[in-house]
């Protein structure tokens, strides 16, 4: 079977599990929405400050949700020794990586759409550059999903996995948070910076993260 077909099989498996368990729907989406609401109440007295900080607050919520999604993706493989099944399946490690990262990315995109709508409604922001925003969001999502998937398998099997993954992922995605926030500021008309320059940074980061995952995920899976 081809690499792409194998990746689709892995992604479909993870997404079916999430659809049946409804963890993303019942935990991750409400979690992000609560964060947005709390910030809205906390800064309601200063609506201008709320609008200026909307991009940073949005991506902070996305990153926290991503940690939950990545942890869930890794946890699925721990149940009933499913990780051993992956090793024995004959699937290429690169395909497993692409499938699992793709499933996380799909979940994050759905989350971002819901959260973005909440931010627009509650924070009173106006989108001026929708294309910049969409491209930045897609590139940032791919980067976060790829890095999170790699570090999740790196920490697989360890007792402290739940606390170790955030410690590994958060420093690694600092460029993503910076680029995504700056590009969103440009898209919302909150900054005069060139949003496309930050989109290019995000795209380069995403490509590097995916390449690193394709190369390194297989050996890490075998050793975890």
Index terms:
224 residues; mainly alpha; 10 helices; globular
Q: Any overview of this molecule?
A:
The protein has helices spanning 3-21, 23-42, 47-52, 54-78, 82-88, 93-123, 130-154, 161-172, 174-187, 195-223. With 224 residues, it is an all-alpha fold. It has one domain (3-223). Helix 2 (23-42) packs antiparallel against helix 4 (54-78), helix 4 (54-78) runs antiparallel to helix 6 and helix 7 (130-154) packs parallel to helix 10. The model has no long low-confidence stretch (mean pLDDT 85).
Kindly summarize this structure in a few lines.
The protein is mainly α. The chain contains 10 helices and no strands. It has helices spanning 3-21, 23-42, 47-52, 54-78, 82-88, 93-123, 130-154, 161-172, 174-187, 195-223.
Record field, number of beta strands = 0
The number of helical elements comes to 10
| Integer-rounded radius of gyration | 18 Å
Q: What is the helix fraction of residues, given as a range? A: over 70%
Q: Topology as H/E string? A: HHHHHHHHHH
Look at the structure and give the mean pLDDT: 85
Shape: globular
**Low-pLDDT residue intervals, each spanning 5 or more residues:** none
Largest sheet: none
* Strand-pairing-aware structural class: mainly alpha
Q: What is the CA-CA span between the terminal residues?
A: 25 Å
Give the percentage of residues in beta strands. under 5%
Our count of domains comes out at 1
